[in-house]
Amino acid sequence: MVQALRAIAASAVxxxxxxxxxxxxxxxxxxxPEIGASGVDxxxxxxGFIMVYTNFGAFxxxxxxxxxxxxxxxxxxxxxxxxxxxxxxxxxxxxxxxSSVEFTWTYVISSYLFLLSENSAGQIGTVLQTGWTxxxxxxxxxxxxxxxxxxxxxxxxxxxxxxxxxxVLGRLVPHxxxxxxxxxxxxxxxxxxxxxxxxxxxxGYSLPRVPAIAAVSLGIVILGVxxxxxxxxxxxxxxxxxxxAAILLGATSLDRIGIKVPKVLVGLGDSSxxxxxxxxxILPALGKFWLASHLSERTSPLVLGLIAFSCxxxxxxxxxxxxxxxxxxxxxxxxxxxxxxxxxxx
Length: 346
What we know:
The chain is an all-alpha fold. It has helices spanning about 1-25, 40-55, 65-95, 105-110, 130-145, 155-170, 190-200, 210-225, 235-255, 265-270, 270-290, 300-345; strands spanning about 115-120, 125. It has one domain. The mean pLDDT is about 90.
């Protein structure tokens, strides 16, 4: 069920960028609904849930923090660096593709290090369009690794205190360095919500069928109603994080009682990371081609939208099968071989 939610989260982000492409690359005049961007909020909830769920027995164990960071690095870093390098190459050799962003060493190096920075256009993020979210993921991973040294019963208290202190610091200190803003953004509380749900789930708490369906339905309704609210820095957490938490609670409860999801969603969930990273290459290229071919004048935006969305999903899954999964498997095997050899030598 969680894999299906990952597929939905990635698809939501892709749909948002499809609308963005239709307007800014293909030349259509459309309203760009912000609800698709909330897929990021669901991703953060799922990340908090999975980290606790898959490492529930590792708290306080010798070597657990190092092992956790190694696994996360093997899972996240290779594909992110590959895609970041692709954007850097385009910035270097085909700069005309970028309307306002220029190559700067600070921006590039910070991006590789999972640090937010400001580009030449004054925008805060990373070289890769979707890479900014991984800066928040990296911060959560580091904090999670540190807290793995402690008994499990302290995790929610300690992580909640750190997240809350960061948010308070961000309000009290007027000029926090850009790279530190990942620690002061309330969106981090979505990781916390996901982690708290994982503690409930592992300890046997889940909703019966009808309340679980009601939780999912309520979450969807709130998303629809609250999508245009304006609560400042808390907007994402309240309008998207909380309803997605209800959806995650209901979905995991349904999973526990044996409700199955279509295999296609599970497959898309497996490839959601590749889809998330690769679609910013696909969509603008399609939009610019469409505009240059004057197809925007003769076809409905729905046609290009469906083509772009389908191409993104197909390419993302193909990249997962041909690049992400083989690369991750090879690096994991090489690391296991290295550890085995080191153990034998010692």
